[in-house]
Amino acid sequence: MVDANLNVDDACVVAYNRLKLTKDIKFVTYKVEGQSNVIVERVGELESTYQDFVHSLPQNEPRFAVYDFDYTADDGITSKKIVFIHWSPDNSTVKNKMIYASSKENLKRRFAGIHREVQACSLAEVEQREIAQALR
Amino acid sequence: MYGGGNYYADEVSGIVLDIGCHLTRAGYAGEDTPKVVIPSYIGMIENPDPNQMDVEGIAPFAGEKIMKYRDFMKLEQVFAEGGDKSEKLEEICREAIENELKLNPREHPFLLSEPSIHDRESRVALTEMMFEKFQIPAFYIVKSAVLSSFASGRSTSLVLDSGAYTTWAVPVHDGYVLQKSIVKFNIGGETITDVLLNHLVSLGVNIRPHYTFNKTVKCFVEGGEVQGNPEFTLEDIPRPNVDPSYQDFSIREIVRDIKETTFKVSDNTFSETSFANVPSSSYELPDGTQVQLGNERYRIPELLFSSGIEGVIGFSGVHQMVYDSITRCDMDIRRELYGNVVVTGGNSLFGGFTDRLHKKLTELTTQNMKVKLIAPQSTIERRFSSWIGGSILASLGSFQQMWMSKQEYDEHGAILIERKCP
């Protein structure tokens, strides 16, 4: 696996564990800072909506995110599933695309218990029902 | 020191080398485009006549030097079937590194791209060559489809790479090439060039390469303005000692340009009746002769979407390659692959290529399957996507710890590349 070998800030895993274990946040977004560090960019409060999350993603720059998704199965049973999102809009620079794509595995493997991963390159691909579809 | 746990501060720039079947690209990591793009051909003169010795010495020739006419010079493709590739490979690397980039390979780490089919033997040989013949301090190798996929911002995608001699459909999942699902055919841009060349020959067109004549232009200038039409005069230069391979190479350069400037992929399946009235397009050959091209401008590139290529068994279009490759992958990831088809390679640059591919793929798949093609608009990005990906990767400060260092090579041997660059 080709790995850009970026440094992952300890706070990244701390925030993830908060989402997974303490369950007092809804989502976390991560950004690459200075082409060398992966840091926490934003933590979404428990009250925040999925739209709040989508709005926190920049239009022309990639991001990583984890989202504690409320999922309703066909039989009506609801549950929470953690989704890892690789946000990579097509109009970001080739440089940013390359940096994020070659760092994704390195970040993701630190997060135990990811249920699904979604790669989204346009707003349509990050819509709520697309995520629900991926969880199916 | 590179790799091996020792941090290397990025004082010197890495070099990125992408050796294709037709072109070799080389340049500095961190730059947007390769500085050097040379044909992957080596010129040889066997038993040179000492009386006609070239000022530039004797063979082998590469790069700019093969563009110049030389008596008896024979051109060989670096990756030609049969024969020993290693010497030619070394020669083309030497040309790109030492003569074109004009740098000392001992001072720079090198990142190379390799074909997507994992071939332990050739990557070990390449590692050995770089450390032994060029004494490089550090090395890394990445599969070409992975670089193209990452450069498009995707760690999972289906990369359709149509080059000069080969077309690949390569599924990449989480940054790994799914080896068993690769579909490869020996067709590409040069297949189309071949067909056009044969067509022109059948029309009786005489394609005269630049070295067979001298062209002079005469025109009258009065008061800074050209008066009347300029007059051309051609003077033949007899070249009895031209090698057929050089003649072929030069003719193909011209035919390739005709193809690139006039050919288009049609929106719908080509048929003689529906394309009977397409306006013809004219092309001026180097000697001034005009060639008229009618519906063959659409008919010939149609071969990329049909099964009519002579001598290529089992090929029934590039869309079918994508479909077959995805069908060989696990059910769970097919949806994602169809939604992320990365189109790259010079042969995909025909106008209408991606639209047609999208249409054909949509026809092949089930109704609710979303097909999305990702094709950079810029010619440069499309032709050099893996080089560009490598350039960004090798320029990252954090990546400097990933190289396989000379020290590691000396300790463990070339086979360590399998662990360092899995």
Automatic annotation (TrEMBL), chain A:
* UniProt superkingdom: Eukaryota
Gene Ontology MF term list: actin binding
GO CC, sorted alphabetically, is:
actin cytoskeleton
InterPro entries recorded = ADF-H, ADF-H/Gelsolin-like_dom_sf, ADF/Cofilin
This one is known as ADF-H domain-containing protein
PANTHER family per record: COFILIN-RELATED (PTHR11913)
| Pfam families registered for this protein in UniProt | Cofilin_ADF (PF00241)
Protein family (similarity comment): Belongs to the actin-binding proteins ADF family.
- Gene Ontology biological-process entries: actin filament depolymerization
Q: Where is the ADF-H domain?
A: 3-136
Q: Which PROSITE patterns match?
A: ADF_H
Keywords for the protein's UniProt record, in alphabetical order: Actin-binding
Q: Which Gene3D superfamilies match?
A: Severin (3.40.20.10)
TrEMBL record, chain B:
- Fetch the SMART domains from UniProt: ACTIN
Catalysed transformations (reactions): ATP + H2O = ADP + phosphate + H(+)
Q: Which SUPFAM superfamilies match?
A: Actin-like ATPase domain
The GO terms describing molecular function are: ATP binding; hydrolase activity
Q: Indicate the secretion signal residues.
A: none
Q: Which InterPro entries match?
A: Actin, ATPase_NBD
Q: Tell me the keywords, alphabetical order.
A: ATP-binding, Hydrolase, Nucleotide-binding
Q: Which CDD domains match?
A: ASKHA_NBD_Arp4_ACTL6-like
Q: Which residue spans adopt a coiled-coil conformation according to this UniProt entry?
A: none
Q: Which protein, by its recorded name, is this?
A: Actin
